[in-house]
Write a structure and sequence with these properties.
heterodimer; A: 131 residues; mainly alpha; 6 helices; B: 240 residues; 80% helix
Chain lengths: 131, 240
């Protein structure tokens, strides 16, 4: 049960890495693998239930997998501490700007889209009533 | 290196001990977060200082710790692949909002690259920071490749990406509430675009739709930023 899920996920990571290589490393292999797994699920080549237990375990514990890389901050301390406030300031402000700009744009566009679709369905409903 | 306790080397320079240190501190972080009931207390806030302190006081080199934990870091790749299932589960939501999502992600990557360029000048930072920070909102593997092609410091990029993800994951939900951005698609997209995998892990905690959209955002933001950075640097050249 688990082994099959692990095999599928590792297999798609390998496929993704190969695809990434062919695309000239423009997009990382894991992202390619994600898109390929999605495509295989959508095309019903793979059943969702086969990967679900393993995929759930991996996505629920994603933060843990970032821990080792974060400890690398100890090795970069020399460069960072020379302009610590600026470094943190730039990242803090920039990250929040991205967060708000993406969230805000998406909210506005979705509201606009809903309004547009509602008006269209109302119109269609109106025509039907006339007929 | 400081050596305050006399522990035999064989006990410290030991891969299982390093793995137990990572998982143990992480679980401690989760335990304290649940116990305190503070949603702002991300497990990272406890986990990272604990590990840094233990490495410092036992004198274990950071490089050994990272090498021993290779297997945990390797799981990042499979966990990104596993997001494919989340995408599949929420295909309908994503398809309905395809155009707005593309426009929002494009806006986000331009704001991300542009704000780093401007802010680095406001804070009078060295040019190496501009080169290393421009790809900071993108997942680690893409960011490191982009930084290398710009001539940035790849390790600085890696650490910045984590800090960025950390800020987004911790402060993101609070700011989204402050700006009254409430619908799951917008929230997930904002978290994924600004804070990549860490944002996604936070988004998954808030809800399944958020998690799926956020996973999609990692992929799209990576692609979009890879396209935006070369164009942006043509318009606003970097100093050599």
């Amino acid at each position: 049960m688990y082994l099959k899920g692990i095999l599928i996920i590792i297999g798609f990571l390998a496929l993704g890495n190969a695809a990434s290589l062919m695309l000239g490393n423009f997009i990382p292999g894991s992202v390619c693998g994600m898109v390929l797994l999605f495509a295989a699920l959508a095309a019903k080549i793979i059943k969702a239930d086969e990967v679900r237990p393993v995929a759930d375990f991996l996505t629920k514990n994603m933060s843990l997998f970032f821990v080792p890389a974060s400890i690398g901050i100890m090795e970069q301390w020399g460069l960072i501490s020379s302009s610590l406030i600026g470094w943190v300031g730039v990242i803090l402000i920039s990250t929040l700007l991205v967060l708000i700009s993406v969230g805000g744009t998406q909210s506005c566009l979705m509201k606009a889209q809903d309004k547009f679709l509602n008006r269209r369905t109302e119109k269609c409903a109106g025509h039907k009533n006339l007929l | 290196m400081m050596q305050t306790y006399d522990i035999p080397d064989g006990l410290i320079y030991n891969v299982p001990v390093m793995l137990a240190l990572t998982i143990g501190s992480y679980l401690l972080g989760i335990y304290l977060k649940n116990k305190s009931g503070l949603s702002l207390l991300h497990p990272f806030l406890i986990c990272i200082p604990t590990i840094v302190a233990i490495l410092y006081f036992t004198g274990v080199p950071c490089s050994f710790y990272m090498e021993a934990n290779g297997i945990i870091e390797f799981m990042l790749g499979p966990s990104v692949v596993a997001l494919g299932l989340l995408l599949y589960d929420h295909m309908e939501t994503i398809r309905k909002n395809a155009l707005p999502i593309l426009i929002s992600v494009f806006t986000g990557s331009v704001v991300g690259v542009g704000s780093v360029y401007l802010l680095c000048r406001i804070f009078a930072l060295d040019e190496i920071f501009v080169k290393s920070l421009e790809p900071k909102s993108v997942t680690t593997p893409i960011a490191m490749d982009l930084s290398a092609s710009l001539g940035g410091n790849v390790s600085l990029t890696a650490v910045s990406v984590v800090l960025c993800g950390f800020i987004g994951a911790v402060a993101g939900p609070v700011f989204l509430r402050m700006f009254r951005i409430g619908n799951p698609v917008s929230r997930g997209l904002a978290l994924g675009c600004s804070a990549h995998g860490l944002g996604t892990s936070r988004a998954i905690e808030t809800g399944a739709v958020e998690g799926a959209v956020s996973g999609l955002a990692i992929a799209l933001m990576g692609l979009m930023t890879a396209i935006v950075i070369p164009i942006f640097n043509l318009l606003f050249p970097l100093q050599q």
